[in-house]
Amino acid sequence: MKNFVANLRWRGMIHDIVPGIEEHLSNSMVTGYIGFEPSASSLHLGNLVTLMLLKHFQEAGHKPIVVVGGATAMVGDPSWKAQERLFLPEEIIRHNEDCISQQLKKFLDFDTGKNKAVVLNNFDWLRDISFLSFLRDVGKHIPIGYMMAKDSVKRRIETGISYTEFAYQLLQGFDFYYLYLNKGVTLQMGGADQWGNLTTGIELIRKKAHAQAFAITAPLFTRSDGIKFGKTTAGANVWLDASKTSPYELYQFLLNCTDYEVEKLIKVFACCSKEEIEALIVAHQAKPETRLLQQTVAKMVTTMVHSEEACSKAIVSSHILFSNVYSMHELYALSEDDLLTVCATIPKIHITQATLNTVDSIISLLSVTTEGVIMTSKSEAKRMIASHGIMINKVLITDPYQKPDFILLHSRYLLVQKGKKNYYLMVVQ
């Protein structure tokens, strides 16, 4: 058995931990779990950090269980939430459960060995429990003072918290107790914001089963401004679903991480050895301008979340705008969706096909036709062309009086590059 805790420590993946866990893990295969709420139809990059706990756990020889919170999602976790969650219709929760269950299969081994992963849904064991039974069998064992002391509750006392969300930790605690009794689970893991919920389960197991259980939390993955990535955090979502966050957008996000951030992320997401990761960090620190770590993490995570093919397309798309390595052949090979994703943030200029047909020269196209958006005058356009500063569809323009008879990308687009960093997408209608 590999030393799971030692592995997490050097990776910087431990925020809180219950003492005695290393001895517990060293004796034999342990079953541990993490829960994910289906409050959206996709997991996000913050969830991937906690998923990596399970991945490293399984690679250390232990058995991972993923619990999709079909029941607890109907209540809502108050952790790190400034206000009450809006209730989701049950049919949406069921849909989200299916989507997330499919996503999980990409990251763990569900097929082979005694420690193959399992997905469960807490709706299966919570739906038939009566309110009175729950109060007598669970609520009786957890004092109000104990519940009030949790950070997830204290943060909300002043702004207001309903009994529904206040009682959330009892439901999650019962999950741990149920899994202990029925699946032999002795370890629960999660993000740092879940510590209070995890320890409620430990307390319930101690009081009802007279047994010891354990917990580990990982530091939260936050934006540079400290805001937690989450399914309901506006502007903070980097989704694992390609229809919500494209492979290109995921690749770009990771590629733009700071050196400080990426040295933490390589340890979290890389499944290679400590020696290999440390060698990468040393090589990056020697020549940080090459952004070796950013490229490695971006490629590694995009491949893991999507596929090697999707990652390759994302790399090509990235270089279309930010490198002169790729030619017009790679640009024309992009699908229309990929092209629009690459060009999502650059200015769009709309012209008609009739207008394009009547333009007599490149300098007119860049100035008069675009009403000065790209070039303020024909003379400016002529100077930029003379200094080799204009490319259209990755073709260097050398003749200012050339007629713009390019083959349009997908029969309707022209990508104009002005200098090294300024791009415009002309949309022909």
UniProtKB/TrEMBL annotation:
CC terms in the record's Gene Ontology section: cytosol
Domain Tyrosine--tRNA ligase SYY-like C-terminal: 346-426
Pfam families associated with the record: SYY_C-terminal (PF22421), tRNA-synt_1b (PF00579)
Positions contributing to ATP binding: K231
Residues spanned by motif 'HIGH' region: 38-47
Catalytic activity: tRNA(Tyr) + L-tyrosine + ATP = L-tyrosyl-tRNA(Tyr) + AMP + diphosphate + H(+)
UniProt keywords, alphabetically: Aminoacyl-tRNA synthetase, ATP-binding, Cytoplasm, Ligase, Nucleotide-binding, Protein biosynthesis, RNA-binding
Subunit note: Homodimer.
Described function: Catalyzes the attachment of tyrosine to tRNA(Tyr) in a two-step reaction: tyrosine is first activated by ATP to form Tyr-AMP and then transferred to the acceptor end of tRNA(Tyr).
Name of the molecule in the record: Tyrosine--tRNA ligase
The organism of origin for this protein: Candidatus Cardinium hertigii
Classification lineage: Bacteria, Pseudomonadati, Bacteroidota, Cytophagia, Cytophagales
